[in-house]
User: Fold these one by one.
Assistant:
Number 1:
Amino acid sequence: MKKIGIIICGRYQTCGGGKCFRALKERVGGFSVYSSDEDVEVVGYSNCGGCPGGNIEYVPEEMIKNGAQAIHLATGLVVGYPPCPRIKAFKEFIETRYKIPVVIGTHPIPMKYFTEHEKMSFWEKAGMKEIAPELFKDTENTMKDYN
Ligand code: SF4
């Protein structure tokens, strides 16, 4: 049994997590790092607290107390307008401070966001394909399915 925590972007704090929980079940997007025969339990779900992300300092601790072995930064950080400028810093902080791996990405990138972001230079400059590789492995059909 793998236990994980999910931290979403504070701009979407009212999000019910529908896409994330569906993706976990389907093992797509950032959850493709887990095989379908491995049980995964979400032991914490929170948001960054809003820019500049003050919750990142403390909320991983609570998740770890519940047994979290990895933390996922939600896909909204990658595909929001604009994408979160602090993704790399959040990952480095959590991994350094809490000694727990951080996966960038939860649900697949919805195709409608992908097609818009692909036109923007900042997405390329931010190196999204390098920092969130799992999100670039989904098929076009899957991405359309998450629109
Ligand atoms: S853009 Fe980044 S820092 Fe701002 S609310 Fe979203 S995740 Fe938090």
Number 2:
Amino acid sequence: MNKTEELNTYCIQNSSEEAQYLRELRRETHLKTLRPQMLSGPLQGQLLKMLVQLFKPKNILEIGTFTGYATLCMASGLGLGAKIYTLELEEEYAYFHHKYFVLSGLSEHIECIYGDANAFVENTDLAFDFVFMDAGKKDYQSQFDLLLNKMNSGGMILADNVLWKGRVLEEKKDKMTSQIDEFNAYVQQHEAVENVILPIRDGINLIRVL
Ligand SMILES: C[S@@+](CC[C@H](N)C(=O)[O-])C[C@H]1O[C@@H](n2cnc3c(N)ncnc32)[C@H](O)[C@@H]1O
């Protein structure tokens, strides 16, 4: 383990304990999916839960459900009557959603919508207080632009993986890295928001709509 991994483990060990259903979901995701590293994990999950507790959103949008780990972390911080709409392209993950959304006792807060998130974001009439963007990185900028019109004032948009395993620092960036780097610069100069990038896990761009 290198120093960063050691510190990450230390932070997990000294943060509130992961719920049993999340531990089981994480384990089953590792056993049964090809890219388990896509799952948010305990540290980021606890942060998402606490941000939801702080901001008390009524409507959350998650773009990219995968097996539902972050969905459940956010749902566990929600108050009465609040809801998460979570978007996932691949119906093959529905097994995890059916099993763990019910097991957690949080399914009444969650609506999972299968299909392309971009079409949903473009066409929805819903307004959101809190958005977790965590699907195709090439879509971040267009989703961000569309979402700005659908956010309630003071709403938060969180974009995940914005440090792209440190590759944003490379001089010669591949296409995906350049798109993420351009997104970060675009947000930083956008007059409708203020933001801070948290160097947690793969980097979260925390964006507040003014
Ligand atoms: C990084 S994973 C999400 C992880 C999850 N938010 C978590 O923290 O546990 C990204 C997910 O986005 C989904 N996805 C990719 N492109 C999408 C699109 N255009 N519309 C909806 N979902 C998409 C992928 O199938 C994948 O399950």
